[in-house]
Request: fold
Amino acid sequence: MSGAMTGRLLALEVRRVLRSPGVLLAGFIVLALAVHAAWSGRGGVETLNAAVELSRASHEAQLERLLPRYTETTEAGEPLYYVAFPAGTTHSEWAALFQGQRDVLPWNLQLRLLALEGQLYDSELGNPLSLASGPLDLSFILLVLLPLVAVALNHDLLSGEREGGTWSLSRLQAGSASRALGVKILARGGIFLALTGAILAVGVGVAGAPVDASLAAAALLVGMHALVWFMVTLAVALGRRSSSMNAMILAGLWVLAVSAGPALLNLVNGVLHPMPQALELTVLQREGYHASWDRPVQETMVRYYEDYPHLAEAEVPGEGFSWAWYYAMNHRGDQEARESALAYREGLRAREGWARRWSALFPPVAAQLALDRIAGTDLSAHLRYHEAVRGHHEVLKAHFQPMIFSAAPLSAVDWGKVPAFAPPAVEPAGIPSVYGPFFLLVGWLLVSLAAVINALRRVSRE
Amino acid sequence: VRRTLRGVGLVAGHELRTAWVAGLPVRVFVVLALVVGVALAGGWRLQSSEAEQRARYQQLVEQAWDGQPDRHPHRVAHYGYLAFRQRAPLAVFDPGVDSFAGTSVFLEAHKQNLLNFGEARQATSMLRFGELSPAYVFGVLLPLLIVALGFATVSGEREAGTLRLALAQGVRPGSFLAGKVVGLTILGTLTAGPVLALALLLPALFSPGPSGTAPPERVLLLAGLYLAYMVGWVLITVLVSSLVRSSRGALGALLAAWVVLCIGLPRVLPSLAGAAHPAPTRAAFEAEIAADMAGVGDSHNPNDPFFGALRQQYLEEHGVESVTELPVNWGGVVSREGERITSEIFEGAALELNRTYRTQDRWSAWAGLVSPYMALRGLSMRVSGTAPGSVEQFRVESEAYRFEVIQRLNELHTTEIRFQNDRAQRLSGDIWQRFPTFEPRPLPLSAALFGEPLLLLALLFGLVWPAAALALAARTLPRA
Reply:
C-alpha cells in the first residue's frame, strides 16, 4: 500500500477522533483550565513579588517613623531593636506555572537583630481550605488531567472496533492489522502530543515565561511524561478486554498514579521522618534567651565570645543593662536551639531526599518534583532560601556589632550602607536533579513501549 | 404496594446475586480495607507521636512559666507563653485542613503572632497530590468503586435484552429502578460499611493522643453522612446507567462526572474564589497594621495626643501635678492602654482576614450543590473538628488568653511596682503560678455543623435531585 493511501487513512482517522464530542469537549476544558491556571499563577507570582517590594518599602517607612523619636545621642542598639530588615526572594515566571510549595512556604521573611530561630519559621498567610484543596496550576493540568485524555483516546482503540464489529473492515481497508493499528495509534498520538504542546504553549504564553533552557527542560519532562501515559494506555487497550474493562483498569491506574500512590508515599515519608525538633527548637530558643536575664552578664558574654572571639576585647558593663548584653542574650537563645535547628534541617533534607528517590514509583510525582525544582518552588529551593536568610542574619549582625559593642550613637549608623539581602539563585535547568527524573521517565517509556510492541505482535498474529 | 415491594426485592436480590457470583463485592472490600488500613495505621502513628510531643512541650512550657524566678511583670509579658494546637481525635479519620494550619503560636505582649509550624511546610510538594486518609478513601475512591459496580446495572440488562424480559414479566419500571438502587446500596453498605465502621470506631474507642477519644455523636453523624453520600452516588450511577443507551457510554459519562465532581471542582473553585476575593500576603497584612498603629496612640511618644489626654485625666482625678505623684504606676497604665489599642487593631485585622477566607470558602460551599463530594468534604471536616473554623476558634481563644494574661501583668505593673526606679523592681516568683493555664475548647458540634447550613442542604440536594430524575427516567424505561 502506498504512502499516500496511509496518509489519507490517517487524515480520516484524525477527523473521526476529533468528531467525537467527548474528545473535543475534554480538549476544550483542559485548554480553558490551562489559560486560567497560567493566568492565576501569574497573578500569584506578581503578588508574591510585590510583597517583597512592599517589605522593602515598609522597612523604609518604619525607619521614617521610628528614627525621629530618638535623639542623635541615643545608643544605636535601642532603635535597632525594632528595625525589621527585608529578606524576601522573588519568583520567576516558571513559579507561576509549576507552583509546588510556593503558596505554603514563606519566601518573604523579615529579620530583626534578635534571636534568629524565633523569626525563621514565621509562616505566610493563606486560606487553609484553599491550600488543602491543592493548587490548580499548569503542572496539575499537564500531569494529572492530561493523562485522562490519553485514557479517553486510547481505551477503546481496538476493543471499540471489535465491539462495533468494524475491526475486520478496518483491517482489510488498511491492508493489515498492524497497519490499521498503526494508523489509529499515529492519529491519536499526534492529537495527544499536539494537545500537550498546546497546553504548554498556552501556559508559557499567558504566564509570559521566557524561551530558555528551563523551557527546554520542562518541555522534555512534560513531553516524556505524556508519552509514558500514551504508551501505558495503549498497552492496556491492545489487550483482549472490553472497552469498559479497559476504562476501569485505566481509571484505577490513574487514581493510583496521581492520587492514592503519592498520598501514600507522603504518609510513609512523614512516618519515617518525624519532625519533633520544630517544637523543641522553639522552646529551647525562648528559654535560652529569657534565662539569660537571670544569669550574670559575664556568663552570657563568655558564651557569646565563643562565636565572636574578635569582640572579646570590647568593654561590656559587668552589671546592669547594656545593648551588647541584650543582643548577646538573644544569641544565647540561638545557641541553645542550635542542635535542634540543625536536626530540623537534617530532617527536612531527609524528607526531601526520600521523596525524590521514591517518586520513581509514580511518573507524575517524578515529573512534578522535577518541574518544581526548575521553577524553584520546591522544598530544596526553600532550604536554600533559608540558608541565605541565615547568612544574611550573620551579615547584619557583623555590620552592627561594632556599633553596638562600642555603644555608638544613632548618628553613627549610615542606613544607606546596610547590606541588602542577596536571594539565592534558582538552580539553572539541566542539572542532574532534572536529568534524573527525565531518564527515569525514559525508563518508564521503554517498559511501556515494550509492552505495546509485544501486544501489537500478538494482535497482528490473530 | 406489596407487588411493588416484591418487585423491588426481586430486582435487588437478583442484583446482589449477580454481583456476588461475579466476585465483585469481595474485591471491592479488599481494596477498601487495604487502603483504609494503611491510611489508618500511618495516620494513627503520625497523630499519636505528634500529640505526645505537643502535650510534652505544652507541659514543659507550663512548668517553665510556673517556675519563673522573681521578675518584673513586663519581663514576664515579653517572656510570653507558647500554645500548641492539639489535633482533634477524629483528625485521624479526616485530617481536613489540619496540615495546612499552624500548630504553635507564641503569645507575648504588644503583638499577635501567627500560628507556625504547619505540617505542610515540613513536607515536599508531593503533599499537593492529596493526603491519604479514610475520609479521602470514602469521599473520592468509594464513588469510583460504586461506579465500577453499577455502571452496567440498567444499561447492561438493556443490552442483554433482560430488561425487556423483566418488564414484560410484570415488574414495574419504577420498582425495577428502585430495586437496582436498593441492591447497589446494600452491596455498597456490605463492602464499605465494615471498613467505615472500623475507621470510625477506632478513634471512638482508643485515643490517638491526649485529646481523648472521639465523641460518639460525632462518630454516628459521620457514619450517617458518608452513608448518605454513598446513596447519592448509587442514585447517580443508576440514573446514568438507565439514561445512556450503552454500558460503555454510561461508564464514560460516570467516569467523566467523577473526575469533574471529585477531582476537578474541588481545585477549580478555591482558585476562582481566590481570584475573585484576593486575600493579602503577610507583608501587606502587616503593612496595614503598621499604618493603623501609626495613626493611634503611641505610648513611647511623650507628646502623643491620646496618651497626653489620658495623663491629664489621671492627674486631675487624683489631684496631683505629675505622674510621679500618682498612687499607681503610670508606666503600667500606659502599657495597659497601649495593649488594649494594639490588640484591637490586630484583632480587627485578623477577623477581617478570616472574613475574606470565609467568603472564599463560600464558593466551595455553593459548589456543593453541584458536587456532592464538596458538600460531604465540608461537613466531614466540620464534624471531625478539622475545618478552618476549628483553627480560627483556636486562634481566637489563644488571643483571648494572651490578652487576659498580658493585661493581668500590666495590672501588676500598675499596682505592685513603684514608678520610681521601675525596671529594677521584681515581683515574687510564686505569683506566676496563680495565673490560669491555657485550656482551649474544641468548637462545639452544633456551631461547626450549622456554621454553614448550605452544606447540609447541598448534601440533601445531592440525594433529592438524582432520586427525582430517576423517577422521571422510570417513565422512559418501557420504551427501551
In short: Chain B touches chain A through 101 residues (CB under 8 Å). The first strand of chain B starts at residue 81 and ends at 84.
